[in-house]
Amino acid sequence: MASVTSLSHSVEQRLASALSATLPEAAGADPLLRRSDRADFQANGILALAKKAKANPRELATQVVAQVVTGDVIGEIEVSGPGFLNVTVTDKAITENLAARYADTARLGVPHAAHPGTTVVDYAQPNVAKEMHVGHLRSAVIGDAVVQLLEFTGESVVRRHHIGDWGTQFGMLIQYLDEHPHELDHKDADGVSGEEAMSNLDRLYKAARKLFDADEEFKTRARRRVVDLQAGEPQTLAIWQKFVDESKIYFFSVFDKLDMEISDPDIVGESGYNDMLHETCRLLEESGVAVRSDGALCVFFDDIKGPDGNPVPLIVQKSDGGFGYAATDLSAIRDRVFNLKADTLLYVVDARQSLHFKMVFETARRAGWLNDDVTARQLAFGTVLGKDGKPFKTREGETVKLVDLLDEAVERATAVVAEKREKVGLTDEEVVENGRFVGVGAVKYADLSTSAVRDYKFDLDQMVSLNGDTSVYLQYAYARIQSILRKSEDARPVAHPELALAPAERALGLHLDQFAETVLEAAAAYEPHKLAAYLYQLASLLTTFYDQCPVLKAETPELRENRLFLIDLTARTLHRGMALLGIRTPEKL
Ligand code: ARG
To answer: What subcellular locations does the record give (predicted)?
Structure first.
């Protein structure tokens, strides 16, 4: 299906050509069009152009207006204020544009990006043998939305879940399991639930820790295990694998709760880059990017200093020969750039790791792995705060388990859904399913509706509220349309470009027409919150539309068909937009 040129773009083109006809040196200049309350659009680009050409802006604007082709897309155009152009588009153009979007069921007229490339998105990266917390939630939710947005615009996306599955902490765990070999056995042949898997790991972790702290000999054995692990000793690796497998059972259960598809081959944790670590160090050392300092292999930066004024290096290899987080990330960059052939690397990671990524990216640039065409960027996200504005903790001061949060969100949402079940006519299964979609949607939306870098307050009461900027509000808007469409009997949604539009219809229509631009912008800037804001405004415009324009009781059959068409396109836009954010839109709510 062909993509649809938006009205704003058509208007922009007409203004640009009128501009260059009036003032040849303004060819290619941006008329700076935006939505306006005075008319449909206002262009204020003439002010700067007039200044540059030493012309009177109002006069220039008047000359431009005389050159503008009107009648098809532009209905009226007039000069206002110091030299703005106020533009009103025709009702016919609005309806025709929307009809073209409607006909494109799959993409609603959204074009692909002009120059798609290959992006690796590093997101949803929990740590083996550890509970997932709200930080992992943010990475998963934001990362998933960015992946969906990019793929929708035609980008080739490679997902990478850089799980923490390597490091010295495994020595203690492996040694413990070796000495207590049946601790991870599953009695049930079908395996264990995610919850059981986590509690097994937790129990093991605590027991191993206790022994490690109390028993010097165990400590020594555990340390030796770290060496064996790094040397790839088969029996040690086999035990390590058990921890990874058990953790994956847990991770997948959480991703499933999150209604998120994560596939096993995309999980390439820290251990996945083991074979590259030596080579990475060699390349850095030979090129002089990294130098030996007190036995460690380090990279120094002029602008990164500790509180004592001494430079803080990025340590690629420790003096005992061990590799850390930085070596793995640098190797992952080589893999992503040279094997996966990516031109963009994105890292959806907590802002508290920003210094790490700054140093890693700069190192990779110096090594020539990154450059102007192949770039890396951290999509840093802020901290999740409790209602009190302090970092989110349980009453006992412990980190909140992600699973508990999700369960509570679903529980509350189910209560909200159940209240209306009679009225809406929901079966037991539908109450359960909708409760899940509403609860998980609420959590995702709260995360996605504010800019990622900002800290945000985790407030379940607010998240599942039916009023305000919440996913439930959007889900209700969608379900309400479906209910009207069900009740419309034999009246069908049909566009009637010959009909005059009421102000609320125009406002809704012009906003629907902006969907494509919003999606492309949100994708290009990696800012799902722009799409969330768009959808919220769409639902608000729909509410105003309902207040002013009866649908099923419209005065004429044509008007009814046209309004059914408008709300159906609104529903499709909501559905598509929410799907890009990873949120479901139940048919009945
Ligand atoms: N596992 C890490 C954590 O839980 C996040 C990994 C981020 N990705 C990366 N390539 N370093 O903090």
So the answer is: Cytoplasm
Q: What is the pLDDT of residues 288-303, one digit of tens each?
A: 999 999 999 999 999 9
SS3 118: strand
Exposed, middle or buried, 422 (CB in 10 Å: 0-12/13-18/19+)? exposed
CA pair distance 65, 85, nearest whole angstrom: 8
Are the C-beta atoms of residues 570 and 533 closer than 8 Å to each other? no
| Sign of the dihedral defined by the CA atoms of residues 170, 239, 159, 275, in that order | positive
**Distance between CA 367 and CA 6 in Å, rounded?**
44
Specify the DSSP element, H or E, that contains 349: strand 344-350
CA distance 385 to 450: 13
Residues 449/536, Cβ–Cβ less than 8 Å: yes
Does ligand 1 lie within 6 Å of residue 270's CB atom? no
Closest by Cα among 302, 369, 295 to 329:
369
Q: Is 349 in the pocket of ligand 1 (CB under 6 A)?
A: yes
Q: In this structure, which amino acid lies at residue 74?
A: I
CB-based contact 419:413 (threshold 8 Å): no
How many whole angstroms separate alpha carbon 84 and alpha carbon 536? Answer: 29
Show the beta-strand stretches assigned E in 116-206: 118-122, 156-160
- Amino acid in position 351: A
161: CA distance to ligand 1 center in Å?
Answer: 8
| Rounded Cα–Cα distance for residues 536 and 468 (Å) | 9
Neighbours of 304 (CB within 10 A): 15
| Residue 505: HSE in the Cβ half-sphere, 13 Å Cα cutoff | 25
A 10 A CB-CB count for 535 gives 28
Predicted pLDDT at 1? 53
CB 532 within 8 A of CB 552: no
Mutational pocket test of ligand 1: of 353, 359, 377, the residue with most ligand atoms within 8 Å of the beta carbon: 353
Contacts of 303 (CB under 8 A, 6+ apart): none
**Strand positions, DSSP E, 278-421:** 291-293, 296-299, 314-317, 344-350, 375-381, 384-385
Distance CA 85, CA 82 (A): 10
pLDDT of residue 184: 86
Residue 271 main-chain phi, psi, to 5 deg:
-65, -25
329 Cβ inside 6 Å of ligand 1: yes
Instruction: Please name the residues in contact with 551: beta carbons below 8 A apart, sequence gap of 6 or more.
Output: 484, 488, 560, 563, 564, 567
Q: Round to whole Å and give the CA distance between 93 and 553.
A: 25
Using CA atoms, how far apart are residues 174 and 98, in angstroms rounded to an integer? 61
CA dist., res. 305 & res. 564, Å (int) = 63
| CB neighbour class for 287 (10 Å; exposed up to 12, middle 13-18, buried from 19) | exposed
Distance 352 CA to ligand 1 centre (A): 11
The tokens for 443 are 């959590």
pTM of the model: 0.95
394: alpha, beta or left? (left if phi > 0; alpha if psi -120 to 50): beta
Residue with tokens 């959204």: 110
Edge-to-edge, what's the strand order for the sheet holding 344-350?
156-160, 118-122, 344-350, 375-381
Could you give all domains of the chain from N- to C-terminal order, each with its CATH number? Answer: 7-89 (3.30.1360.70), 402-580 (1.10.730.10)
Q: What's the CA angle centered on 28, arms 23 and 32, to 5 degrees?
A: 90
